[in-house]
Design goal:
single chain; 455 residues; mainly alpha; MgtE N-terminal fold; CBS-domain; Tetracycline Repressor, domain 2; 3-stranded mixed β-sheet; 66% helix; elongated
Length: 455
Amino acid sequence: MVKLDQQTRETYQNHIIQTIIDQNMTDFRELFFELHPTDQIDILNSVTKKQRAVFYKFVKPDEFAEIFQGLEVSKQKLYISELQQNYAIDVINNMPYDDIADFFAELPESTKELYLSQMDKDEAAEVIHLLKYDDQTAGAIMTTEYISVASSDTVGNVMNRLRLEAPEAETIYYLYVIDEQLKLVGVVSLRDLIVSPLDQSIEEVMLSRVRSVETHTDQEEVARIMKKYDFLAIPVTAQGMLVGIVTVDDIMDVVEEETEEDFGEISAVRGSIDANVTAFAAAKKRAPWIIMLMFLGLVTAGVIGEFEETLEAVIILAVFIPLIMDSAGNTGTQALAVVVRGLALGSVDGSSVKKMLKREFGTGLMLGLICAITLLIIIPFLYDGGLILAAIVGVSLFFTLSFSTMVGATVPLIINKLKIDPAVASGPFITTINDIMGLIIYFSIATALLDYLPQ
């Protein structure tokens, strides 16, 4: 397999594309199949529709299946529409069941039924079975292509089976031991098989304490378990019976999906992050948040209006409004990120909430104190009003940062308690709330000390 560095990648890619243009199948296959599948995908995505028509002639369906399963769904839909129907069915038949199910889940019902009706019956039945599970659960992302053995088997017999069955399995790093009722009773690793005597029974080398998940387990929980135990795969059971496995490559996709979803929630752009989304669709997704925040912004303007007399009396106070608002928003968003990450990783639970809130409040106090002392030193040299002005801004910022940190930490916890995704406590929402409270604190202190400021 050729390993391409950044300098040679483009040259090698152009060379392969030229073989497509020249319709030189021999050179194409010799060069193309020396590449890693990821580099093969890059080449496929870089050629024109006319060149792809030649590409499909040069690549067999089982070979294209390896490439197809690594494509983004949008590309899968495009390329499958360009294939002849028989070729497309052969491609699908050569894909792992879980990848077929993931692809079919994105298709219109009529198209999905068409493909299922023309697939191999046994494979179609497996895919239909996977499609029945709720989205974002272990059942939805698992594969049924695994190797199971009986505890009474010998190591030698299992090794012989592996030579025959391994090509059809998703992974062979773990083999799962089941009893006569198909219930999961143990697991044995490939390493254990290799180092064990051939006449030794599987029962003697297997681990009987198996960590598994149920079909209804949330995919984020599956990801947390696999990360905690450094698993390459984890068995999925239904009432104790082994029904599938979730592999690490599927979990990497889950982590990417969940991270993108949480990022979209926190930044109030959920559903509009994808570069392929049109401007209209992105605006439609973001509009509700922007309109809500606009109305909250009117509340912020109303707060400033309530203290109009204070501002008219001491115009210099207006200079520090952005400082108060930005600091409040930034601190609240930082606390929000810490808590949402903790909830996503499962490190924040009932026993640690009090400790975490205490820590975040302490952090807010220290940040506020540091900023207040800094302003007490700097402001008298830059603005009229001396120490009184510096004290107003410094003390206001101290209380604002303390309050903002607690808001950023507690809001996602409350939302999580209500069984709602804590990421919906988005940064813009918390920022606006903290802006309002920061201004109230600032102008309240300024109004109370107005007589001590130069008019």
